[in-house]
Design a protein that fits this description.
Elements (H helix, E strand, L loop, with lengths): L12 E5 L4 H16 L3 E6 L1 H4 L9 E4 L9 H25 L3 E4 L6 H10 L3 E5 L6 H6 L5 E4 L15 E3 L6 H4 L12 E6 L6 H12 L3 H5 L1 E5 L3 H13 L3 E3 L7 H7 L2 E4 L3 H10 L2 E4 L9 H10 L4 E3 L7 H13 L1 H13 L5 H27 L1
Parallel strand pairs: 1-2, 1-4, 2-3, 4-5, 5-6, 6-7, 8-9, 8-11, 9-10, 11-12, 12-13
Helix pairs in contact: 1-15, 3-4, 7-9, 7-13, 11-14
Length: 382
């Protein structure tokens, strides 16, 4: 880990580039808050999807740019390439306007034009990789990055010429998750399950979890309390299914206070996005992960494996995910709650509690080194 310099005596201009999903946007926003708190100027480059997270990066300058994903048909790729070129020009102008000292990439294809603009213009940049497998945008930019922050031990797909720049710091997670006090399972009369599928919910969880609950014995059903995040189009049918089973359940499309929802849960059933896995570790919770099978490079599986291999989580792959398999896992946990406590304790051990501060330090170190080099070059020119 880099040694923190005396950054607070200087004010740097920092531009963050984040893809349009919660997994990229939330970590960036959390670190932005830390940098602003330290007295630095922060701005954001994202796409129209990122702009929909209007509760994040509040009060900061934002630039919404064109972006594209180079996959699909030849026509689709051509359109994406055009969008990337336009996005690069938009990002280049914004970086100049902001007088950016450093650009920080949080991955996702919408971040690519901004990172490309930084690279071509000679501005220093650093990367944060949320997943256990480095994403394609970060992988492409890694060789020229000044520093790379990773979230999981042994992150895969890091280019050989970039390994020396890697700092394992974890995912930035809100402090509220670490402040959760888990209840003693021994004398608890109810059993609470939280089901989350990422920022948009997950159809497969809406299909399978209620049917797995239906497969439990009546005694287990009677003590259940379920909060299940659902897509709006699924909420009515999921709620109706739980009601038919006389299960106490809430099915919101969006959970406003996720730390509170985590605090109330005995176990969490979820997809295995990097941020979700890191929040589970920070909260010290037992989890059943259902990794997204079509995730690029199967990265959700490897995210979940980071907790599974230390005993903090159970993985049920999509190909094996059915009501009987899930009911079996749920029933085993409900019958022996000591397992839940052991899993929760193991999960907590994977938490990287200083991720926010350490990532902010890395960013400011890069900015400071660039500032120092620029001053020396000016002296030489004179």
């Amino acid at each position: 880990m880099t040694i923190r310099q005396d950054h607070d005596k200087q004010c740097f201009s920092i531009v963050m580039a984040a893809g349009g999903t919660g997994g990229h946007m939330f970590p960036g926003s959390i670190v932005a808050e830390e940098l602003v708190k330290r007295g630095h100027r922060v701005a954001l480059i994202t796409d129209h999807r990122g702009a929909s997270f209007d509760q994040l990066f509040k009060g900061l300058d934002k630039k919404i740019i064109r972006a594209g994903n180079l996959s699909g048909s030849l026509v689709a790729r051509f359109k994406s390439l055009f969008s990337i070129v336009v996005g690069w020009w938009q990002a280049r102008s914004f970086l100049t306007k902001q007088k950016a000292d450093v650009v920080v990439g949080f991955g996702g294809y919408p971040a690519f034009p901004a990172m490309l603009a930084a690279r071509i213009s000679g501005r220093p940049f650093c990367l944060h990789e949320q997943n256990a497998v480095m994403g394609r945008v970060n992988k492409a930019m890694a060789p020229k990055a000044k520093a790379i922050a990773t979230s999981f031990e042994g992150t895969q797909n890091i280019p050989a010429d970039a390994v020396s720049k890697v700092h394992l710091i974890g995912n930035p997670v809100r402090a509220a998750f670490r402040e959760i006090e888990n209840q003693d399972q021994k004398n608890k009369e109810t059993f609470s399950i939280l089901v989350v599928g990422g920022s948009q919910g997950a159809r497969i969880l809406s299909d399978i979890v209620p049917e797995a609950v239906a497969a439990l014995n009546k005694q287990d059903q009677q003590i259940l309390n379920i909060t299940q995040q659902c897509r709006p189009e699924d909420a009515v049918r999921v709620e109706a299914r739980y009601k038919a089973l006389n299960i106490d359940a809430q099915c919101p499309a969006f959970i406003d206070d996720m730390p509170m929802a985590f605090a109330a849960a005995d176990i969490i059933i979820a997809r295995a996005g990097a941020l979700t896995v890191s929040e589970v570790a920070a909260a010290g919770k037992a989890a059943i992960f259902v990794p997204l099978a079509i995730a690029v490079d199967n990265h959700q599986y490897y995210n979940a494996e980071a907790l599974k291999k230390i005993g903090g989580a159970i993985i049920v792959e999509e190909k094996d995910f059915n009501k009987d398999a899930l009911a079996s896992e749920m029933s085993a946990l409900m019958k022996d709650r000591k397992i839940i406590q052991q899993m929760a304790k193991a999960s907590k051990q994977a938490d990287k509690s200083k991720a926010i501060e350490n990532l902010a330090d890395i960013i400011l170190d890069v900015a400071q080194q660039h500032n120092h080099t620029s001053k020396n070059n000016k002296r030489v020119a004179v």
